[in-house]
From TrEMBL, chain A:
Keywords in alphabetical order: DNA-binding, Sigma factor, Transcription, Transcription regulation
Classification via PANTHER family: RNA POLYMERASE ECF-TYPE SIGMA FACTO, RNA POLYMERASE SIGMA FACTOR SIGV
InterPro entries (alphabetical): RNA_pol_sigma-70-like, RNA_pol_sigma-70_dom, RNA_pol_sigma-W_bacilli, RNA_pol_sigma70_ECF_CS, RNA_pol_sigma70_r2, RNA_pol_sigma70_r4_t2, RNA_pol_sigma_r2, RNA_pol_sigma_r3/r4-like
CDD domains according to UniProt: Sigma70_r4
One GO term of the biological process aspect: DNA-templated transcription initiation
PROSITE patterns in UniProt: SIGMA70_ECF
Single Gene Ontology MF annotation: sigma factor activity
Xref: Pfam families: Sigma70_r2, Sigma70_r4_2
Domain RNA polymerase sigma factor 70 region 4 type per the UniProt entry, residue ranges: 128-180
Name of this protein: RNA polymerase sigma factor
Domain RNA polymerase sigma-70 region: 24-89
Family stated for the protein in its record: Belongs to the sigma-70 factor family. ECF subfamily.
Length: 187, 83
């Protein structure tokens, strides 16, 4: 995968815009998912994910091929998400709850038919609840919880990607887990 | 409930990070056998992680890539051709 991506990047650097389309196709779901779990709104996540790819395209010259492209790309995405969170008004949590609910309903993988209605509601409610708890985390914990438990990156990868010492990543994931435990652990 | 030592909670997190020294692991295991509050704490931590991991994978909306491509700064050639 890395070899294919690096070849595509070289083509993009040479001015082949179509090669970038393939890169977007490869990474769009991962980038969108990071943004959605960080922000909680489908519309905002699309906006942020688009911006991530546009910035990656414009700054592709600064990408060093000895690094992992995915890490470089996710770093752009997480920076944009954090900027967005910081710019939000204090009523952000209320907004996020409403828009998050809408996004999850639209994007739920619960099958539309063939399941008991009660089961569906229960599952959706749970998903929304879990998402709300993630959104309540301070962004520096949230980002690490999302990268570790949703994107399944290792703590070393996260440390390298965010350019934060491993010890700090550990402290933050510990605090993030304790914060989640207070709500989710009681269910 | 919260009476247990910070040290045991630290060991729990080391365990969850899969980065626990063998001696810490032994101490933690032994402690969990005897301390109900810590067992509960550890269980709640694991449950929280399970819930986060159980969230469904989300996909980018249809047409996402083409919307990105439309927004990219145009290549010089194309700008020239349009004029």
């Amino acid at each position: 995968m890395e070899a294919i991506v690096n070849r595509k990047i070289k083509q993009v650097m040479k001015g082949d815009q179509n090669a970038f389309n393939d890169i977007v196709e490869i990474y769009k779901d991962k980038v969108f998912q990071i943004c959605f779990r960080m922000i909680g709104s489908r519309a905002e996540a699309e906006d942020l994910a688009q911006e991530t790819f546009i910035r990656a395209y414009v700054n592709i010259w600064s990408f060093k091929q000895e690094r992992k492209f995915s890490s470089w790309l996710y770093r752009i995405a997480t920076n944009l998400c954090i900027d967005r969170i910081r710019k939000k008004k204090p009523d952000f949590y209320l907004d996020a709850e409403i828009s998050g609910t809408e996004g999850l309903t639209l994007y739920s993988t619960v099958p539309a038919e063939g399941k008991l209605p009660e089961m569906q509601v229960e599952t959706l409610e749970m998903q929304e609840m879990i998402q709300r708890e993630i959104l309540k985390l301070p962004e520096k914990y949230r980002i690490i919880i999302v990268l570790k438990y949703i994107e399944e990156l290792s703590l070393n990868e996260i440390s390298e990607m965010l350019d934060i010492p491993l010890g700090t990543v550990k402290t933050r994931i510990h605090r993030g887990r304790e914060a989640l435990r207070k709500q989710l652990g009681k269910l | 409930m919260d009476a247990c030592s910070e040290r045991m909670i630290l060991y729990m997190h080391e365990y969850l990070d899969e980065d626990i020294p063998e001696d810490h692991k032994k101490i933690l295991e032994h402690h969990l056998e005897t301390c109900r509050a810590c067992r509960q704490h550890f269980y709640e931590l694991k449950k929280s992680i399970f819930y986060v991991q159980s969230l469904p994978n989300i996909q980018a909306p249809p047409g996402f890539a083409s919307r990105v491509m439309d927004k990219l700064p145009k290549e010089k050639k194309r700008v020239g051709a349009r004029r």
